[in-house]
Every structure is written in C-alpha cells, then in structure tokens.
Amino acid sequence: MTHPPDLQELLPLTPTVFHMLVALAGGPRHGYAVAQEVEEHTGGYVILGPGTLYGSLQRMQEAGLIEETENPGEDGRHAGRRRYYRMTPLGGAALRAESERLSRTLTVAHARLEI
Amino acid sequence: MSGRGDPGRRDRIRSVYARLIAAYPREFRERYEADLLQAFDDRRNEPRFSGTVGGIRLVLFLLRDFVTSVPMARDADRKGRWVDVMSDILRDIRYSVRMLVKSPVFTVAAVMTLALGIGLNAATFSAVRSILLRPLGGVSHPEQLVQIYRKWPGMDYGSVSIPHYKDIRDRTSDVFESVAAHYFAPMSLSVDGRSARVLGLLVSANFFQTYGVTPVLGRSFIPGEEDVGPGDHPVVVLGHGFWLTRFGGSPDIVGRTLTLNGHTFEVVGVAPSGFRGPYNFADIPLYVPIMMQREIQPGYDLIEARGSNWMNAIGRLREGATMAGAEEHLDALLAQLREEHPDSYDTQLGHTLALQTEVGIHPLYRNAQVGMSAVMMAVVALLLLIACVNVANLFLARARERRREMGIRLSLGAGGRRIFQQLLTESVIFSVLAGAAGIGLARVTIHVLGNVRPPMDGPWDFGLVLDPSVLLYTVVVSLGAGFLFGLAPALQAAKLDTVSAVKGDYGGVRSRSRVSSTLVVLQMALSLLLLVSSGLFIRSLQGATQIDPGFDDPAGLVMASFDPGLQGYDEARSRVFFDRILEEAQALPEVRAVGLTDQAPLGLGGSDQSVSIPGYEFTEGERRSIMYHQVSEGYLEAMGTDLLAGRTFTRQDDDAGPPVVIVNRRFADRFWPGESALGKVVHTAGTDREVIGVMETGKYRTLGEEPAEFMWLPNRELFATGVTLVARTSTNPAPVLQSIRRIVHSADPDMPVFDVRTMEDHMGIALMPARLGGSVLGLFGVLGLALAAVGIYGVMAYSVAQRKRELGIRVALGADKATVLRQVLGEGMRLALLGTVLGLAGAAGASRLVKSLLYNVSSLDPVAFVGVPLILVGVAAVAVYLPARRAAGVDPMKALKTE
C-alpha cells in the first residue's frame, strides 16, 4: 500500500485523534457530537473535555486530517452557531492506515492469546 | 438548566471557566472561545454534571482537561505572550522541584542550614518581643502608664507604702487620671477542702480601672468604697487563666465563695483573658483589695504604716500631661509630706518615674535585660548571616556543577532570561521550604523557652508566643535570602556563553575565585565573632557557678518554707510551732544543724533597714540601708558560714535579753575599720543593738552582686510569720526533705509547706539568668560551630576543587606534588588567617560592649579568644588539605579531560 508522503509523518495516530477520526468517518459533526460519539465508542473510557477537544481539532485541522464544513442541515440546539467538521481524504487515508496497523497488531495478539 | 440557555441562573463554575480560558494562547482563544464555552454548556447540561455533586465532578473533569490541553495548545502556538510566562513558571516550578528532589543532600543541607538561621531568629525575636517590647496585654493605652518609685540614697527604684500611695493618689490628680498600687502576697487558698499556697496580688480598689481592664464576668473593685474600711471587703477577682484551670471556667463563679487564710471571700469578677496582670512574667491567679491586707498578711499591719514600703505604684497620665510635669507634682507633694511627716521623709530624695512600656521585668534589670537581649539578637543574626554565607556557597558550587546543563539548555535555544527565571524559581522554592522549616523550628524553640520557669513556686509565665509580626519577619528574611542566593548564580548563568559552558571551560574563573575567597574570609570572621561572644558568656556562666556564696556545700543544705500566720496563728502559737519543728528536725539522725530564717539568701529579693552608727558620720547621699535577715539560733551553723569573731545566736537572745546583732566582715570594715566590731552599737529601727559576732562576707541577693554589708537579727526577739527552715545534712538530702515535710505535717496537717528543696536547687534562682543565657548561647555556639565548620569546609573545599584542573596540569608538567600541596595550603590558610584577624578584631570590639553582663570573666578571656580561633583554623586547614591532596594526587590525564 502506498500513502501520500506526508501521511507517514502522521502515523501512528494518537488514540484521541484515532477515536475522533472514527467519529467523523460517520459524516460531518460538530465538536460536542464528536466528543459524545468518542465516549460512546470507547464505552465511556475516553471523555474529551472542551480544551482537549478543540486542541485536538485544531491540530488535526492543521495537519490536514479534517476541515470545517457547512451545517449539513441539522437543527438542534444552537445548531446555527456550531462549527462543523468533516474528514478530508487525507484523514480517511490516515484512519484506514491506522486501522490496518491496529488490526495487524490485534491479529497477532489474538493468535498469541488463542482467542 | 444552566449556562447560556438559561441566563437567569448564574453559574459560578462557568464564569470561572470563562476566565481560565485566558490561559490558552491568544490565537487559539480567539478561534475557539465560543466553542469552548459551548462545549462547557453542553457538558453542564449532561445529567452527570448537573447539580452540586455533578458540579464538583465537572470541576475535576475541567481541571484535568485544562492541565493537559493548555500546554498542548501552547505547543501548537509558540509565539509567547504573558501566558507563556505563566506556564513557564508552572514548568519552572515542576522542574525545580525535580532538581531539588534529585539532589537530596544538597537540598536537606541547605534547607536545614537556612531553617536553623531563620528559626532561631524568629524564636529569639519572639522572646525579646514578649519580654521587652510587647506592652502589657489587655491594657488600654499602655503608653500612658507610668511606674512611680521612691528614690532614696543608693536606691532609685524604691517601693511605696500604703499611706504614701494614698497621698499620691489623692494629691496628684492634676497630672494623673488615677494612680493604682499592687504587690505580690502569698496566701493560703482552700476550695472544697483542698488547700494550697498561691501567690496573689493585693491591689488598690481602682486597680482595674487604672489599667483600663473590664472584667469578663462580674465586676471589678469599687473605687471610693472598697478602698476604705480595713477588713470590710472580703471580695476577690480571679485571673482568667486561674479561673479556667482551677474552676474549670465555670460561668456561675461570680457569687461563689472561697477561703483565703481561713477567711471567706466572695468571688465578684473574673479578669479578661488578654490581661494576665501588671507583670509580663506572671499570670496572676487572684486579686484582693488592699483593705484586706491584715487578713492576707496576719502579723503585719501595713495599712497605716507609712514606713513599710511594699507596693508598686502606677499612674495613668492625664491627656496632655508629661513625665516632667508629673515629676514636678511629685516633688511638690514630697515637700508637703516632709513637713507633715518629717520622720518618714527626711532621707527620701524624690521619685523616679518610668514608662510602663519601657520597664520590661523591672527597671533595675532593664539594662541587663536590654543588653542580654541585644546579645541574643546579635548572636542569632550572626548565625543567620553565617547560614546565608553557607547557603550562598552551596548555591555557587551547584551553579558551577550545573554550568554544562545550562550550556546545553542555552544551545538548545533557551534564552538567558529563561535560565535566569528558572534558577530564581528554584531559589525561591528553596527559601519557601527553608522558611517553613524555620517556622517549625521556631515553634519548637518557643515551646521549649516558654516552659522555662524560675525554680521557685509562683504563677510565673512569660506568655511566649510566636506572634504574627515574627512570622512576617521570618517570611521576609527567608524570601530575601532566597532572592539573594538565587540571584548571584542566576546572573552568572545568564551571561554564560554556550560553547565554553558545554565544553566545561569556565571563562569567569577569576571573578569566581574572588567571590569564593571573599566567602572564606567572611565565613571565618563571622564564625569567630559568634563563637567568641558565646564563648565569653559560657565562661561567664562558669565564673558565676564558681563564686563563693559565703556558705558551705549547698547540696547538703535542705530547705522548707511555711507560714503559720497564713493559717491564722498568732505570734505566741507560731513560736510554739517553730520550736516544735526545730526540735524534731534537730532530732533527725542525719541532721547536724538546723535553724530558721525569714528569708533564704540568693532568692533575688531581700529586706533592708536604715542604720546609724554612733561615732560614724554618713556623708551626704551615702547609703544607710543595710540588708538583713531575721534568723534563729543554729541558722548560721547550718549554713556553715565562717564565724570570724564573737559568737552566734542562742536561745537566750530573745526579747528578755539585751538587743543584739551579728554583722559581716564588710559591715565591720566599713564602720569600724581597724577595730574590733564586738561590743559596738548599731542603731536600727529605733533600737540600739550590740554587735556580738562577725561573720565572713557572702552573697545575699544574687551571686553577681558586689560584696555588701549585711546583718543578722535574732528572730526570738523580732518576729516574722513566714519562715524558711534550713538543715545541714551529711548524707543524701532526699530522705531529710521527706522527714521535714512529715514533721511539719504532723504538727499541723493543714499547714502548706512550699519551696522544699536543697540550697543547690534554690540557688538555681540566682543562677537562672546566667544559666539560661549560658545554655541558650551555648546551644547557639554549638550550632554556630557546626555551621561554621561545615561552611568553612565547604567554601575552602570548593575553592580548591575549582583549581583541580590547574593543579593537575601543574603536576603533569612536572611540578612536585608536595610543593603544589604546600602552595595551595598556604593560599587557603592566608585567607583563613585574614578572616581570623578580622573576626578577632570584631569580637574584641563586641566584648567591650557586653563587658557589664559578664560575671567574673575578663572581656578578653584567653579561652574564648585563643581556643575558638584554634578550632576554626584547624577546621580550615583540614578543609584545604583534603581536597588539595586529592587534586594533587589526581591522574593528570583525567584532570585535563575534566569531568
């Protein structure tokens, strides 16, 4: 598998970034929705506070993993004021690469543990 | 609902959070502030983060988020603002703590050194403040209070009699708002069948009003009512501390009765907790009006006795009145009194006034007290200075060790300012630690000092506390010290040039070695000054204990005091009681001689009487008053005082026989030089007495007193109700003390026996100032010696270690090891000797100042001035020799490569 050159520098992803990308893989979301989904996916293990959430979003945006987008048509509370994010193609590639890396590791782990 | 969605409710957590957002870098903040607050609101609306418990959970959650995300956001945005300084400080603190923990020996040594200096300073400052500077507690406008003394030839601070006090009170109202009087009186207190001797205060009825003290319960005495009618006012006001300890702070104490000397008294009030009485060294248990004097001191009638000067008078100056004005009024009063009562006033010279806020324990001891306090303060200040030099040196040495670290940090892009800030943080953290440890040490020291009591029964309590001003002083000193030591190495480090620092090549060696040379000299000089001064005081203490008190082995002399008058005995019954005790004590097999005295010598107090000698002309202003004791037969034998001529008292020296007196050698030499004193006449208190014996001169009030005239009067002719029995024993005194207690108890089971001890213990009273001063200074001296030794070793070793490379090169180039060693030793010792000379000069100057405080010791005592310098020079020599030998012995190749 070949990646764009700057993808290599982004890997491996930190768990927080990985979880956030997983959330955004389901479509554009606003920050709080990302945090909620991460918490749900990790069974309540990762709870993102405001600073961590937006700090990570800023970094991911600067690295080109995500970008801001229009409100896709939601109309929840304060929906008009919220900033929405979606995954970029680079973000998708990074998520895929990280998932494959993790799944290879998982396979080895499963074999050793005879699961 | 809270937050934006519900503006009606103020959410404190949200407003704090909104303010905390300022800690994020500006760019991040500007971009995400609304989002952060929105995310906050979203969280706040979740059920788990609502309500009070949820609020706490939210705070913890946000805190963790905040701590991790601020540095993260900052990393993303590296264009420093003041926020950087904030988080730099946080980072510096973390780093500093890590550095301090990493070198625990350095940290502990430096912290303990500075803590010692700070702690002892805080404790000494507290003690001096409590005893000398602090005005009487609980008193309103203490600066208006003036002590009034009668002035006699040879005595500036004489007490006043009750009639004299009344005249002052009634006839100086132009200058004094009111004048009160008080004095200590022992009384036998019994509550619920338990009796004990307490030392209370007899006071004028306006006592509390004059001091401006309002009772916390009940009332004070009533001026104009309770100061007339002897015996008519059996009322008592309790001291606050006594009320708490003896009566459990019972709120219904007012109206209850207690028994004093067998008389029933009613408790009318309780003094407030801030007011411990008119002395700063005692917590007065109870106050009784002077009109009850005859009940409290049976056998004495002082109420009408103009010549019996027992009381301390104190006046409150009227607004606008001056000390000088008060003195004029008192002079005018004295002139009137001279005409009214010529007998009582012919020799009084005037009055001495002293501001209450300035007298300390007593004006007589003020100079000694001020002097001693100044010495203590100076010694601890020196100790702190030495500690500071030590710590400065530790910091310097460490700064040198860390040059490479600093160089690396510089070359990695840290600015000089950052490194400066880092070192400063370290030293401030360090001094906060040292300050805290110092306060801990000060508390312990104050506690120990606060438990020091004079070895005599009484309500003594200096009320020592570590007060807020001392804490402030400590904080200022410790922070100041931290800045001082942080600054020098930090300034040096900030100037470092990267390349040489990383290479381990030290450009500033010359200026550095000048710094450390100065430190060596300073350390040596300060240590000497401290140690020589404390050495002098310790020698003085030794001198005091070697003074001949004028009687035999004090350890074999047993004493016990009792006062039948307090139990309601009249003179005849008391005499029977005394005889019974004397006979039974004499019959004890261990007792060789036994006698009674109205006052034991060396108890700091004493009585005196004016004398006139037929054929001797007193010059104008010559002292006429002579100290005396009233003693029984057997007393002088028990004391073991040498009889030089004539005889001592016998049972026959009573009021049936001719009046007699025994004098000491100094008395005889003063009034009958070159003649035998035997058969000569002494006129005193209206009686002509024949001298029947001459004793060797001894010490009577204090061990430090100048030799003084003294006389003994027979107590079978005169009478005193309170007596001290002294018994000479040839064996272990403990069982004799028990036997005497038993003898008194079997004669009257209700008779309180007090001050039961050996003369040696009793002399502790006279020795206490010297002992206390000596042991405190001794402790300071030992600490100082330890600090000085460590410090001198450190400074010397450091300056030699700095030259390790140079020495190694010289040895490598063929220099003789011994020569190198000798040269280094010589250079080090030159500095040490320079310090010694400076220190000795300072000590010689200082010792002139304290000369008056020394007993029996020359202020240039050879032991202090030679022994102490020798020890320190020895330490210095070892401190130079060991590292120098190591340096000279080092493998040249290693030395060249350095670390």
Average pLDDT metric of chain A: 84
If strands are numbered along the chain, what order do they take across the biggest sheet of chain B? 3-4-9-6-8-7
How many helices of chain B? The count is 27
How big a fraction of the residues of chain A is strand? 5-15%
Helix/strand/pairing category of chain B: alpha+beta
Put simply, the count of helices of chain A is: 5
**How would you spell out the order of helices and strands of chain A?**
HHEHHEEH
Task: Provide mean pLDDT of chain B, rounded.
Answer: 80
Q: Calculate Rg of chain A over CA atoms.
A: 15 Å
Helix content of chain A: 55-70%
Main β-sheet of chain B: number of strands, strand sense, barrel status? 6 strands, mixed, barrel
Walkthrough of the structure:
The complex is a heterodimer of chains A (115) and B (899). Chain A has 115 residues and is mainly alpha-helical. Chain A is built from five helices and three strands, in the order ααβααββα. Chain A has helices spanning 5-10, 15-24, 31-41, 50-62, 89-113; strands at 29-30, 66-69, 84-87. In chain B, the strands form three sheets. In chain B, strands 3-4-9-6-8-7 form a six-stranded mixed β-barrel. Chain B is 53% helix and 15% strand. Classes of the chains: A mainly alpha (115), B alpha+beta (899). The interface between A and B is medium-sized, with 21 and 26 residues.
